[in-house]
Amino acid sequence: MNAALKLTDLHPSPDDITGDVLAGLASVPKRLPSKYFYDKRGSQLFEQITHQPEYYLTRIELALLEASGAEIADAVGPRAHVVEYGSGSGRKTRILLDALDDPVAYTPIEISRSALLASVERLDREFGDVEVLPVLADFTQPVPLPAPARQAEHALVFFPGSTLGNFTNPEALRLLRAMHQTMGDRGGALLGIDLQKSPEILEAAYNDVAGVTSEFTLNLLARLNRDIGSDFDLDGFIHRAHYAAGPGCIETWLVSQKSQTVQVHGSSFDFADGEAMQVEYSHKYTDAGFAAMAAEAGLKVVRGWNDAKDWFGLRLLQRA
Ligand code: AVI
Which positions of the chain have pLDDT values less than 70? Predict the structure, then answer.
């Protein structure tokens, strides 16, 4: 495929990393946005996390997609234009496209040009019969979809991995409202959501014994040092993830191991010994909570599939 010809560039505004980091460090408690985890090394480390024994999410979602493929295809209907939010590793996409009845086109929507271009080559090799129409855009906003050569019956937004859970609830609601626009009248959305369960299982998933999640979290500081010239001491912080049962969410923190000062873009930020900086949310859902948030965005849950232990779910949404 000639990526230059087929890629639709909607010119998303580039991330203001420095501005976001300065604002986050000025807040109380200090925070850094988790979207900056995913530089090249961060993406490799996340891929490694998905293979850790404690991180059940990916394993269960893959099995669920395999096991429910025929039912999902039935519920979705033929000739879908599959629209994926983010360009993942392709494993889940391949299972979905194989299961669906005559999917017409596949559109990954991704804000990072390099990530999108890297995925385009792989996608074209993998999905020979399906037209690949990548879009460079911010999927948290409504996205006009490119028209496939062969007409699709409807769009199906695919947002696996419980990535929705990494957004705060107000951000997730805005994202679902944008999804409502992007999917169109006859469209739908298939989301993977991680379900509430015992804190021990959840906390183990975000504190793997091999320490990959810790390395992933600390890589955020390495990435900022490289990309915006901050001087975070990587040995001066440790990873901590705990489950906050009230909001139903894993909160990941970087905890300062000493009293220290960090310089970012001419500003100094003092950390006390033991001070915790918030770096990621991973929300875990109940059926009622998820359905209520979808309803606020004008969407209804029309079908759902859970694994046998009710640890992880797929939900098919349509306009209410
Ligand atoms: C990408 N996202 C859904 C992962 C999660 O489970 O929240 C990111 C992650 N963070 C630590 N481990 C995995």
Answer: 1-5
- In which residue are the tokens 């090249």 written? 40
Helices 91-99 & 56-76 angle (0-180, nearest 10) = 20
Beta bridge partners of 285: 195
Intra-chain end-to-end CA distance of the chain, in Å: 38
What pLDDT is stored for residue 200 in this prediction? 98
Dihedral of alpha carbons 12, 76, 177, 248, sign: negative
Cα 166 to Cα 193, 280, 281, distances in angstroms: 11, 7, 5
In the prediction, which pLDDT does 196 show? 98
Phi, psi angle pair for 50, to nearest 5°: -65, -15
Q: What is the DSSP secondary-structure string of 192-206?
A: EEEBP--HHHHHHHT
pTM comes to: 0.96
Question: What is the identity of the amino acid at 184?
Answer: G
156 DSSP β-pair partners: 82, 188
Q: How many angstroms separate the alpha carbon of residue 43 from the centre of ligand 1?
A: 11
The pLDDT value given to residue 25: 98
Q: Which class for 208: exposed (0-12), middle (13-18), buried (19 or more C-beta within 10 A)? A: buried
- Work out the number of other CB atoms within 10 angstroms of the CB of residue 123: 23
Give the nearest ligand 1 atom to 50 CA.
13
CA 153 to ligand 1 center in whole angstroms:
33
| Substitution candidate for ligand 1 out of 35, 37, 49 with most atoms within 8 A of CB | 49
- Tell me which residues have their CB closer than 6 angstroms to ligand 1: 49, 57, 161-163, 165-166, 206, 213, 280, 282
- β-pair partners for 314: 192, 305
Which two three-digit tokens encode residue 62? 């893959």
Q: What is the pLDDT of residue 4?
A: 47
